[in-house]
Amino acid sequence: MKxxxxxxxxxxxxxxxxxxxxxxxxxKAITFVAAAFAVTVLVLIAYELVTGxxxxxxxxxxxxxxxxxxxNIHGQFGALSLIFGxxxxxxxxxxxxxxxxxxxxxFLTELAPKPVRALLGALVEMLAAIPSVILGLWGILILxxxxxxxxxxxxxxxxxxLPFFRGDHSSSGIIVAVLILTIxxxxxxxxxxxxxxxxxxxxxxxxALALGATRWEMVRGVLLPAARPGILAAVxxxxxxxxxxxxxxxxxxxxxIGIHWSLFAFGxxxxxxxxxxxxxxxxxxxxxxxxxxxxILLVIxxxxxxxxxxxxxxxxxxxxxxxxxxxxxxxxxxxSAD
Amino acid sequence: xTEPAFSLRTSGRLRRRQxxxxxxxALALGAALLAVSxxxxxxxxxxxRGASALNLDFxxxxxxxxxxxxxxxxxxAIVGTAVIVGIATLIALxxxxxxxxxVSDLASPRFARITRLALDVTNGLPTIxxxxxxFTMVVASHGQSALAGxxxxxIIMVPxxxxxxxxxxxxxxxxxxxxxxxLGVSRWRTTxxxxxxxxxxxxxTGTTLAIAxxxxxxxxxxxxxxLGTNSTADSNxxxxxxxxxxxxxxxxxxxxxxxxxxxxxxAFTLMCFVLITSLASKLAMAHYRKKLGG
Lengths: 338, 294
What we know:
- The complex is a heterodimer.
- Chain A is mainly α.
- Chain A has one domain: MetI-like (MetI-like fold, Orthogonal Bundle).
- Helices cover 72% and strands 1% of the residues of chain A.
- Chain A contains 12 helices and 2 strands.
- A two-stranded antiparallel sheet of chain A has the order 1-2.
- Chain B is mainly alpha-helical.
- Chain B starts with 11 loop residues before the first helix and ends with a helix.
- Chain B is built from 11 helices and no strands.
- Chain B has 2 domains: 12-52; 59-292, MetI-like (MetI-like fold, Orthogonal Bundle).
- Chain B has helices at residues 12-52, 56-60, 75-106, 109-124, 127-142, 146-171, 174-182, 187-215, 219-222, 244-252, 257-292.
């Protein structure tokens, strides 16, 4: 190719410096290492917990899961009553929180006047941002006395024929832990559910309303079915959160071993037992037993979380924007959770 | 005027449907009011008890020695939280951003999916489990240190930063990347001089949220850095340092009214920090999303 002067055009010189040439592979390698590290941490955690609990596993075996004893002095440990306490508190908290959270989400997307929606939504999310140790402090010093003086007498006088509402009234116990966990879980489920409702296509709502459905019938017939898998995932995440909460629970639950059917009784959960024993773990067996508890928690948490992710991810039949909104919601939820 | 052939007043089944509709609406309103009032009760009761115990000494003095729990302050805990969370941020911010760059720009879809899953699962782990992990890995052999606490908080922060950064990286218009690549700029320069700068606002707000979350963590610090001093000024990250959250926990266990007042005041300070930063960064993130048209 020649220009008008008849000179040869200058050959394209190699202008890239060496740093540009190796830059791309280096960036790729560094970011790969970072990502691999993020994945490896999970494996490392599992490995450390398994090796750390080996001593307790050798001594107690799987019988650890079915033994109720927790005896620091004689070095006998078992997790049954902690598993029971974890199940009771988390399940009850989820049972109370789920309808409440769905109702809040419905109010925020369907009923609240437009100008206050964002504000109310932000307030509900702020509830999730309160550090758990502050909720625990509030739980022992304010909620606890209220439960002892008002709620428990009321429950035992109205529902006292049930075994769940008998026993001495006290300012800590399973019921206080359930209430605190409910407060923590509601905003998580509510904010995810709200994002889900907001992404249901308006045509579907309007179609139902145009057919003469009342607003509630539209909600029941259109919104809730459309959002069901997402709500299930949100509930699973809330459950995982309730299972793993250590601080607030250890401050209010009374830290007692034993299986009691009364909600007024003291109890303990896996996570709260670990937190409560942080400065009293003197022997290797006890420390190893605490690591064993953490390993049980890890298994539960992995099952719940992976289950929730699988509920969300492989269902690619749903509209893409709904998936994106859900991802976004889950990710902001994670930020506000403890 | 003639009477309509059918009564226009609702009756029977329709009335019942409308009644159900109203009841459900009222229940939803009630639930929302309940949530907001619980928030108000918590915030106000912490504020009332906490604000009355605040004074200059509270921020500038360490714990008083002897039998006078009303004097002194929690400077040691504020310094501890600043050091622990600061180092955790220094670890987690670059790591989180690199992971996000890899997942959003460079990885194969399959590995990106695995990484995302791992991040989300890590995010869902109980924080006490992460604490126990760092305990068996570091503290059991090397003893407690603020650094160990930072490590645990960094593990908690990386998924938060990576996921929020990934989201804003995806918001950066493809045209910008393509324009840069079309000019012959290499990929890594495009990433560092085009993509990350335009996503910077979002990255920083995501990081602020992660900091607010980390500052409120207690459980992972119990086993890692709770033996710190409370009477002298120490900020060496190789020593165990106490934190604000741990101070709240410790004071709340003591029956003395002076210590409980300190617990409330520390809780109030921490709550203000956490709520204000998370609210501000959420607003900034919403603004940023709108700006980039996400």
